[in-house]
Every structure is written in structure tokens, then in C-alpha cells.
Amino acid sequence: MQHSFTHSFISALLACAAVTTACVLPTDTLSNNITSGFGILIQNPEYPAIHDQYLMLEAAGGGDMHWFVGGQPPVGVSAFNLVLSEGVLEQGDIHAVIDGEYDPVANTTKIFMTERTDYLAYFTPVYACDPDNDEVQVILAFVGREDFGDGGLICVRPSYDNSYEFRYSPPGNTAVDPGQCIPVTMVVVPAAEQSTYPTSGASPSTTSSAAQSTASATTTTGTTFATSTTSSSSTATATLQHKPVVGPYLTSAIGTTPLPYTDETANGFAFVGCAPEASNADDGPARTLTGSLLADDAMTDGECVAFCASEGYTYAGTEYTRECWCGNSVAPGREPQTTLASLDNCNYPCGGNASQFCGGNSWLSLYQACTPGAACVNAVFT
Ligand SMILES: *[C@@H]1O[C@H](CO)[C@@H](O)[C@H](O)[C@H]1NC(C)=O
Ligand SMILES: *[C@@H]1O[C@H](CO)[C@@H](O)[C@H](O)[C@H]1NC(C)=O
Ligand SMILES: *[C@@H]1O[C@H](CO)[C@@H](O)[C@H](O)[C@H]1NC(C)=O
């Protein structure tokens, strides 16, 4: 299954490439470990705004790095210290995962980097033809998401400042929304070669000979990429080593009964909705609730409400299964919506009670103290 996926990926890639593409792909299998630092060049010739731009990393709090490409001004900074460890993209302590910010319209999920345990994104290096100049390049073919297994693809969608952010589309996704999921090719650019990338436009001779292509590939292979000696298959295969799943499980909150919040009205707090943190808003880096923070692997909504109340705050918000943020106001513009769909972002189970929801990835399950003497009712979602 994995084998045929990779094969069809290459076929699709070749089909997408310009008709002049005829580079000869080496037949050796690339290792799933790339231990010397590299950056990632994004390609999709049909989208000049992202084609031949580097993957950029934007700090998103807690050590997380969110993925962007393009933008005016550019969002994030490029990085040439990425490594691939058994198919997992890493930068220091953080690694690429897929979870959070689920988009129920396009049926896509965020891919980003964090040091926390979460569903890993697996890639495998394979040879491909550069659509610009028909030379052999090494790309990271997407293999799959840890919990879903093989298949799916990595794509981008428009974000702020004309940038694009990265998404995962699961296998068999029929929720057609092409503008919200633009497929991208991720090219491995060794740190030492960053000055020579991106290649600008087609090479003078787009009918490069097999000999030239092979020579170029050999150089690339010899200088940068370890190759496996155990296989001569022309379609590289990844050796997925699925790690134990202990991260938050992504579930759709829509349609669940009862609604995905905890009734804390008996404790004097009403649920008001799912509020964005900075990385899901476009108004600066400040926290949505700026008071005390309590982190606890056994967090529950009740614990958070009790903590914030004991500190004298009027808002309490749980986030990422284990965080509790307090405040006396919600950052302007970040008030939660009252649509059912808006609740879908707050779909992480609480660390201390998996029957409750404790926010999401940079989303707060938000509770507000009720006015003494007045009715204490949760918001209505339609
Ligand atoms: C890849 O690296 C891991 C450790 O990071 C090692 O255990 C594994 O044997 C390596 N695999 C190959 C094919 O080199
Ligand atoms: C949405 O994605 C899920 C996997 O996350 C998949 O099971 C489901 O079939 C998809 N829905 C559509 C409409 O494609
Ligand atoms: C866990 O949360 C659910 C839903 O709020 C609640 O009914 C249940 O009593 C909680 N479990 C414990 C052990 O507190």
C-alpha cells in the first residue's frame, strides 16, 4: 500500500511536471535518515506566489513553529537545520506533527512543529524532476499521518499577509475546496547548497540529456544523501515505525450530543465558546487571557474554573489538554463565535478527564464568571 502510494505519487508528480520533463531518476533508494541540515523549497509552478519559495518557520508560542510560505512581508524565517529522522522532520527538540485547527469545510488539519507528543507526519525522500530545469532533485514525499496511516497529502491555503499556511488532507478526502488545499512539493535543499537554490526558471536546454541528469543525481547522492544498500527499487519506500499514540485525539465536535463543553454553571461560570489564541488571530502575539497560568497534565475544566476563581479572575480558559489561562477580559477581536462550527477547534480532551474538552491547539475553551444574582447560562450555539 505504501509502496504503491509512493509510486503513484511519483507518477502524479511526473504527470504534473512540464511536458519537457524527461530527467532520468536514479534507481537507488534514499535513506529515511537525513542527518545533515537542510531547508525545504516549496514548488508548485501553477502558483507563482509560493513556487520556489522556502518553507518558513514562525514562532507560535511554547516552542512551537508554524509553517508558512510566501507573504508580503514574508511570514517566518527559513531554516536550514532541519533533519529527517526515520521519516520524521525535526529541528532540535521539535518535530513535525499533524493536529489542530481542523477545517470542516476542506476537511484539512494543520501541520506544524512542536516538542509535544502528537500525531507525527511521516515523509520519505525520493528523487523527482525539477519542474524548472528538469534536473534531478530530492523531495520529501508525504507518507502519512501517524494515526491515519499511509496516504493523504500536504497542501497550503491562504493565510495572513498574503502568506500561505500548511495543511494535511487525509486520504480519500472528497471535501473539494481546491483554493483551501493547494498541493505542494517539498524539495530538500542541503544547507551548503542554499545559495544555488531556487534555480531560476527553465534551464537553457530543457531537453537535458540522460547523461547530464544522471551525473547531477550522482553528485547529489554522493555529497549529501546516504543511500540504502538493501534495495535497488526505483520507488523508494519508507520504513514507518509507528510510535505509540499518546497525543490528543482529533475528533469532530460538530454534532456530538451534548455540546462539547463542560457545564460549570453550578460553579458560577458559563461556557462562552472557543476563543482563538494569537496564532489563530491576526492581531499580534499577545495572549487572549493575560492573567495567571496553571499547567497540569490532569487538567479538567472544573479545575481551571476553580483555579481562576480562586485567583479572583472572571475568565477561565483551558487549552491543549493541560493548560489553564485566566484573565479579566478577552483580547478585543478574539471573542468566541456562537456557531456550532466554531466549537470544532476546541476538540482536545482534557488531560484529567477525557470526557471533557480542554481547548485545542492554540484555542481556548472559554468560561466566564456569571454576574452574582443573575441567571448563569451557557452560550447557545447554532
Ligand atoms: C536512522 O537513525 C536511527 C536513529 O536516529 C537509527 O536507529 C536507524 O538505524 C537509522 N536507520 C538507517 C537506515 O540508517
Ligand atoms: C474527511 O477526513 C476524514 C479523515 O480525517 C475522512 O475519514 C473523511 O472521509 C473525510 N471526509 C470527506 C467528506 O472527505
Ligand atoms: C468527567 O467528565 C464528565 C463530563 O463532564 C463527567 O460526567 C464525569 O463525572 C467526569 N469524571 C470524573 C471522574 O470526574
Describe, in short, the structure shown.
By secondary structure, the chain is mainly beta. It is 10% helix and 31% strand.
Question: How would you describe what is shown here?
Answer:
With 382 residues, the protein is mainly β. The chain folds into two domains: 220 residues, no CATH class; 119 residues, no CATH class. The protein has three helices and 23 strands. Strands 1, 2, 3, 4, 5, 6, 7, 8, 9, 13, 14, 15 and 16 form a 13-stranded antiparallel β-sheet that branches. A hairpin with a 2-residue loop joins strand 21 and strand 22. The longest helix is centred in the first third of the chain and has 15 residues. Bound molecules: 2-acetamido-2-deoxy-beta-D-glucopyranose (NAG) (3 copies). The site of one 2-acetamido-2-deoxy-beta-D-glucopyranose has 4 residues, from loops. One 2-acetamido-2-deoxy-beta-D-glucopyranose binds next to loops.
